[in-house]
Write a structure and sequence with these properties.
The complex is a heterodimer of chains A (about 270) and B (about 270). With about 270 residues, chain A is α/β, with parallel strands linked by helices. Chain A is built from eight helices and ten strands. In chain A, a hairpin with a 6-residue loop joins strand 1 and strand 2. With about 270 residues, chain B is an all-alpha fold. Chain B has a single domain, classed as Orthogonal Bundle (MetI-like fold). In chain B, helix 3 runs parallel beside helix 6, helix 8 runs parallel beside helix 9 and helix 8 runs antiparallel to helix 10. Classes of the chains: A alpha/beta (about 270), B mainly alpha (about 270).
């Protein structure tokens, strides 16, 4: 183990919960281990119900594992904390706060002074391309803009790792591609460490340095694959890149293989 | 046209629109009322005309009787509301955020909430004597439950993801309550406050009729004894006007600045 660059280590995570119909315990995750190094972008991909979101929630401290251990920057994780920023699929912006106040919220909790908060928030709002929308409330923003604001809110808090739970699943296809390109550009500038959960193979390949494939029932790691594509990445170039398509085909094969468990999706 | 002139014109027309919107429904109501009383089907003691009511209204304003009894009533209502809400709010947040206190208080509160405020009149008189104290107590018992139950509903419908988002930003319990729970419960709380005041008015009038010798409810009751039908209507309409002013001058501006501005509430759903 390389202690200097490893930001996240999740070791042998198991999670069982009672099935709502039968009452018997169901194993959602079986000895799942994932590491993410500094400034690395890792995606976790798998069929729906494979426990990938549960894994992310356990890393965030929002759910407790049945067994196993999570360390972030060398510290054991047991509950939610500002060292792990999270971006949710449903944005989870506070409707009663403006874009500016949403982005400032984590800084406010840290006790940072008003002027300093405003300055940091403005920088991240500009970084995600929301300049001019500082004083708008979330219900006046489009889906794509809301997710940009949520990313700015998480980044402004300067977390050790950014956790993203299918953040682009609810926006339209064109906006999704633009947001993916922006995210790779931002994580290059900010040297962000990201753990990203998705069920979309192309999204995982496009964004990631490494893709971890989970199989379902119980969720377990079947592959941990390096993605060696040049950065910065752009859709108009990668879509025609044979290596990109090669990765996608390999992952599709894995997810549809008999190892992958039920309900494989593309 | 200069920008200033166009702004001024816009302001004038929107004022006109507002007056039309607020006045026309009442004008139509009064016209129908006048038309019905002009038919002379019923004697005026059973169906007083708008003109009679207006004359009585002016007389009672000039004599000071109306404003004095309204004042007495509003003080009872104000205290009753404040005390009822001051108990309901902390208890509601406690029950909403702590399952042990929810388990303890829920059966008790459920038992008591079915008992109408007016059913407390006998004890109110025994404990406080005839007068404002008894009336205020009855109002407290009427305001408490709608405020509590709407607040509890408000807490139950909070999206868990908002609490989780605040936790991942570093929020502890106090910050979650301040920045998520309080604002998120506001739409339901406003409904609770409206219902609380509305229930309070019902108990106010009923309570004053039975347990008091003063206030607008007593005036209505008293006028009936002397067959002063117009005075009854004056009392009834005064209550309506006070409520309308509360709504337009306090409750709606609060909602426009908070829940409606945040997109948690709209005027209605059109174009469906």
């Amino acid at each position: 183990m390389n202690g200097t660059t490893e930001i996240l280590s999740a070791r042998r995570i198991c999670k069982s919960h009672p099935d709502p119909n039968t009452g018997y315990d169901v194993e959602a995750l079986h000895e799942v281990s994932v590491t993410v190094n500094h400034h690395e972008f890792v995606s976790v991909i798998g069929p729906s119900g494979c426990g990938k979101s549960t894994l992310l929630r356990i890393v965030a401290g929002l759910d407790q594992p049945s067994s196993g251990e999570i360390n972030v920057a060398g510290r054991r994780v047991t509950r939610p904390g500002a060292d792990r920023g999270m971006v949710f699929q449903e944005y989870a912006l506070f409707p009663w706060k403006t874009t500016q106040a949403n982005v400032e919220f984590g800084l406010l909790l840290k006790g940072i002074k008003k002027d300093e908060r405003a300055k940091i928030a403005r920088r991240f709002i500009e970084l995600v391309g929301l300049k001019g929308s500082e004083q708008k409330y979330p219900h006046h923003l489009s889906g794509g803009m809301r997710q940009r604001a949520a990313v700015a809110r998480a980044l402004a808090n300067n977390p050790k790792i950014l956790l993203m739970d299918e953040p682009f699943a609810a926006v339209d296809a064109m906006t999704r591609q633009r947001l993916q390109e922006e995210l790779t550009a931002i994580s290059a500038v900010e040297r962000t460490t990201v753990l990203f959960v998705t069920h979309a193979i192309e999204e995982a390949v496009f964004l990631s340095d490494r893709v971890v494939v989970l199989a379902g029932r119980p969720g377990r790691v079947i592959t941990d694959m390096k993605i060696e594509l040049d950065r910065p990445r752009r859709w108009d170039q990668l879509a025609r890149d044979p290596r990109f398509n090669g990765y996608c085909e390999t992952l599709t094969g894995l997810l549809h293989g008999k190892d992958a468990g039920a309900e494989a999706v593309t | 046209m200069t920008a200033l002139a166009s702004a001024r014109r816009w302001r004038t027309t929107s004022w006109l629109a507002w007056i039309v919107k607020e006045i026309v429904p009442f004008a139509v109501g009064v016209l129908i009322w006048q038309a019905l009383s002009s038919l002379n089907v019923w004697p005026s003691v059973l169906f007083p005309s708008p003109a009679q009511v207006f004359v009585t209204f002016v007389t009672d304003i000039q004599s000071g009787v109306l404003l004095k009894s309204l004042g007495v009533s509003l003080i009872s209502l104000g205290w009753g509301f404040l005390v009822g809400a001051a108990i309901a709010l902390p208890l509601g947040y406690l029950m909403g955020l702590n399952s042990a206190s929810r388990d303890f208080f829920d059966p008790l509160v459920n038992l008591l909430q079915a008992i109408p405020g007016l059913a407390w009149i006998p004890f109110a008189i025994l404990w406080f004597g005839l007068g404002q104290g008894a009336v205020t107590f009855i109002i407290v018992m009427s305001v408490f439950f709608p405020v509590l139950y709407n607040l509890l509903t408000g807490i139950r419908v909070i999206q868990p993801v908002l609490v989780e988002a605040s936790q991942t930003l570093g929020a502890g319990r106090a910050a979650i309550i301040m920045h998520v729970i309080f604002p998120a419960t506001l739409p339901n709380l406003m409904t609770g406050i409206r219902l609380g005041i509305a229930f309070g008015f019902r108990s106010l009038v009923g309570g004053e009729m039975i347990a008091s010798t003063d206030g607008i409810g007593y005036q209505i009751f008293n006028a009936q004894q002397y067959f002063q039908s117009a005075r009854i209507v004056v009392g009834m309409l005064s209550i309506g006007i006070v409520w309308l002013m509360l709504d337009r001058l306090i409750l709606r501006p609060i909602e426009r600045r908070t829940t409606m501005r945040w997109g948690l509430m709209r005027e209605g759903i059109e174009n469906t």
